[in-house]
């Protein structure tokens, strides 16, 4: 029997968590085009907190890693006058080992796939039609290129059974972390 690749293992282990996040998070209102500006702002801020904390932590362990999604989110927030803040989540996300960082990066980079669908839909949301540019939901093909490169990089790694388990557990923990941040109602009051 052929051994499962690391990607296959991670995908299978997180399938249910992905479904939960997909069903619960505010992006579902982009999927049905009903989102309004206040909800969009909260969605952007939740994503900013989740990506900034995870991308910086992953980069501490993986030198090649350039997590830049939080920078695009910061641009969106600035454009809408929402103060950029990590609120209570500063330092809340931690990886201890390289395999753990790979597991977390799988989640953060793989999210680009859903991001492409959301980018297409966001331009069709009537209540956001006054927003000229979406930086995070940009639909740029580079997001997919980065995901493919990451998968290649991951496939070159040799992990022991113990390390595979570490990566898998961290991928699950990363989904749970995103879920927790997505359940938080931050203030999105505009700066005067
Ligand atoms: C409403 C929100 C979301 C939608 C509509 C969505 C949709 C999708 C779609 C269509 C795929 C491609 C599935 C495939 O080709 O097999 C995908 C893959 C993925 N998504 Fe999401 N997604 C959402 C949110 C998220 C979030 C918030 C995360 C992470 C925090 C995430 C992480 C992933 C990962 C890791 C994969 C890659 C699975 C793999 O091929 O190994 N997604 N998503």
Automatic annotation (TrEMBL):
<dbReference type="InterPro" id="IPR016084">
    <property type="entry name" value="Haem_Oase-like_multi-hlx"/>
</dbReference>
<dbReference type="InterPro" id="IPR016053">
    <property type="entry name" value="Haem_Oase-like"/>
</dbReference>
<protein>
    <submittedName>
        <fullName>Biliverdin-producing heme oxygenase</fullName>
    </submittedName>
</protein>
<dbReference type="Pfam" id="PF01126">
    <property type="entry name" value="Heme_oxygenase"/>
</dbReference>
